[in-house]
Amino acid sequence: xxxxxxxxxxxxxxxxxxxxxxxxxxxxxxDSLPSVTEIRDQFxxxxxxxxxxLALLKSEGLVTSRGSLGTVVAKSPIVITGADRLIRMEKNxxxxxPGETSSGHRVMRRSVYDPExxxxxxxxxxxxxxxxxxxxxxxxxxxxxxxSIYPPHTTAAVPELADDVRMVKQFDKLYTExxxxxxxxGQRTAHSxxxxxxxxxxxxxxxxxxxxxxxxxxxxxxxxxERALGYWEDVYAPGTRVxxxx
Length: 246
Description:
This protein is an alpha+beta fold. It folds into two domains: 64 residues, Winged helix-like DNA-binding domain superfamily/Winged helix DNA-binding domain (Arc Repressor Mutant, subunit A, Orthogonal Bundle), CATH 1.10.10; 155 residues, Chorismate lyase-like (Chorismate lyase, 3-Layer(aba) Sandwich), CATH 3.40.1410.10. 30% of the residues lie in helices and 27% in strands. The protein contains eight helices and nine strands. The strands form two sheets. Strands 3, 4, 5, 6, 7, 8 and 9 form a seven-stranded antiparallel β-sheet that branches. A two-stranded antiparallel sheet has the order 1-2. Strand 8 and strand 9 form a beta hairpin. Helix 1 crosses helix 3 and helix 2 crosses helix 3. The chain is globular and about 60 Å long. The protein starts with 9 loop residues before the first helix and ends in a 10-residue tail after the last strand.
């Protein structure tokens, strides 16, 4: 059944539909969108409404015009956060978008001294936690570094987090299955700072030592009814487009 968008807001709804498909990895860079006629018929809106929706997506850098190919997904699509990957996997089971891979997977036990992490996870400086690191890539180009940190009570319930292998199932699902407690995602925040040398190396950015390279960072904490369970940080390469929640 064709979706009839509310009058006066049709273009925004049409744009949101295709933005979600791109964000969820169901439309890959280079994929063609349906024609104006097909979109018009699918949503039951006017051609002008479709044109406005496509113009909005183009202004966001998500799509581009390719002559006889029509409108296609841009080669530099938005890069989603680790928290959004949980949502995408729940919707369509896709861990990665088309053309996306990951590398540099590392798992380690370390004493934590970062005051922000200690506060978020209610740890004392020097307490041990499991840290998982991976580099996400699009068409083999690094786009972000994902860091997740888990306190001892989380790894006690989900010991797989401490194994130096890729997880086959997300930690929140495993935690709920084993404890009966719901895992809630906290408020995601974003800020800018200078990248560390380790982050520059992971993102394959060739910069002089001690140079100041700005990066965007998003942070989110997961918790149950009683305590914090995990701290996730994503560090994005300069120029990366990161979607924000509505």
